[in-house]
Specification:
334 residues, mainly alpha, 2 domains, 16 helices, globular, disordered N terminus
Length: 334
C-alpha cells in the first residue's frame, strides 16, 4: 500500500547547522539501497508505444510501477485507464517541460544519494529490524513530494523540489508559505519525514494534545535520523521564525492553556497550530503556522530526557498523549 503525504549532511542545509545533538557512530553500518531514476526510464523510453513502455517498466519494477501507473498518475478523466492516463502524462507538453527542469536540476543525484544513505544508516541504527528501503525518483505532476510503497520503497517526487521561485508553482496551488520549502535543500529531510510517517501512522486521537504529541514524536525521530541538519530544515522555519519561537515558548504554551485548546477536539479551532500556515489566528502576527508541532517536539525531548531507556521504536508506539505530557514534566523556557 502507498503511504503519503547528513557530516556531509550540512552540504545542502538551507541555513547553518544549529542542531548540535550528539549522534551515534554509524560508520560500521553497511547498507546498500538501490537508487532508481524512474522518471528517466519513463520519459526516455518509447513514449510512442506506451503499452510496451508500461509493460517493460512493470516487469522491471513491479511494485513501484503498480502504484505509479494505477494511483499516482491515474486520471479520472480517462476513467483511470492506465494506458490512456500514461499516454497523456508522458506526451503532455507541460509534464515534459517539468521533467526537463527536474532532469536539469537533478542530473547528478549522487550528493542527495549520499545524504539519504547517511540518514538511512541512522534509521538502521535505531530500527535494526526494519528494512532499508530502495530510493525511487519520479515526476508526479504535483501530486506527491514523497511517498512510501510498503516498507521497501521510498519515492521522491522531484517536481516538488525545483525552488521556491520556480515559475510553474502557481500561487493558487502553492502559496508562499508552502513554496518556501519546495527546494532542493528540503528534499532529503522531507523524504525522511515520510519514512518516519510510514511507521508512525495516523494521529491517535482528535484533540490538539493528541496532534502535538504525535507530530512532536515524528519530528523528534526525524532529528535523530538527520542529526547534522539545521533546525530550520527539520522544522521548516526561517531563522527569524525559530528565534521568535524560542523567545516566546512560554507565551505559546500559556496561550494553549488560557484558551483551553489542549483538550479541544474542534479541529477548525486549532488547524493552523498544527498545519502549514502563514500565521496563527489569535496569536501575534509573527507566530508561524504549525508551531504546535514545534512545541510537541520540545515536549518529547523533555520526555526522552526523563525516560532515556525508551527506544525510538517504543516511542513511535506510544499512544497516550496526556500520559506522555504528564511524564515529560514539560516546562517551557521563559
Amino acid at each position: 500500500m502507498i503511504k503519503y503525504i547528513f557530516p556531509a549532511l550540512c552540504l545542502f542545509s538551507v541555513y547553518s547547522c544549529q542542531n548540535t545533538q550528539e549522534a551515534p557512530d554509524v560508520s560500521d553500518i553497511a547498507i546498500s539501497p538501490e537508487v532508481i531514476r524512474f522518471e528517466k526510464e519513463l520519459f526516455q523510453g518509447d513514449t510512442q508505444n506506451v503499452e510496451v513502455l508500461i509493460e517493460r517498466l512493470s516487469q522491471k519494477y513491479p511494485e513501484f510501477s503498480d502504484v505509479f501507473f494505477q494511483q499516482i498518475i491515474a486520471d479520472p478523466t480517462f476513467d483511470n485507464d492506465v494506458t490512456r492516463s500514461t499516454r497523456f502524462f508522458v506526451r503532455d507538453s507541460f509534464i515534459r517541460a517539468l521533467y526537463a527542469d527536474c532532469d536539469d536540476l537533478y542530473q547528478n543525484f549522487e550528493p542527495y544519494t549520499a545524504e539519504i544513505e547517511a540518514g538511512l544508516k541512522y534509521f538502521k541504527y535505531y530500527f535494526p529490524d526494519k528494512p532499508v528501503p530502495d530510493i525511487y525518483t519520479c515526476i508526479t505532476g504535483f501530486e506527491y513530494g514523497s511517498f512510501t510503497v510498503g516498507d521497501q520503497i521510498l519515492a521522491i517526487g522531484l517536481d516538488f523540489y525545483l525552488g521556491s521561485d520556480y515559475p510553474n508553482y502557481h500561487p493558487d496551488l502553492f502559496p508562499v508559505f508552502i513554496r518556501q520549502t519546495m527546494s532542493k535543500e528540503y528534499l532529503v529531510a522531507k523524504s525522511m519525514q515520510t519514512l518516519v510517517n510510514n511507521y508512525h501512522g495516523e494521529t491517535r486521537g482528535n484533540r490538539l494534545v493528541d496532534y502535538i504529541i504525535h507530530n512532536g514524536i515524528g519530528l523528534y525521530v526525524k532529528k535523530k535520523l538527520l542529526p547534522f541538519s539545521s533546525d530550520a530544515v527539520i522544522f521548516e522555519y526561517s531563522p527569524d521564525q525559530l528565534e521568535w519561537l524560542e523567545e516566546n515558548e512560554s507565551q505559546i504554551w500559556g496561550y494553549f492553556i488560557e484558551e483551553d485548546l489542549l483538550l479541544s477536539s474542534d479541529y477548525r479551532s486549532f488547524q493552523k497550530i498544527i498545519s502549514p500556515s502563514p500565521n496563527v489566528p489569535g496569536m501575534p502576527p509573527d507566530a508561524p503556522g504549525q508551531l504546535g508541532n514545534w512545541i510537541g517536539e520540545r515536549i518529547i525531548e523533555s520526555y526522552m530526557d526523563r525516560h532515556p531507556e525508551t527506544s525510538l521504536q517504543t516511542l513511535l508506539q506510544l499512544d497516550d498523549s496526556q500520559k506522555i505530557l504528564a511524564e515529560s514534566r514539560y516546562r517551557p523556557r521563559q
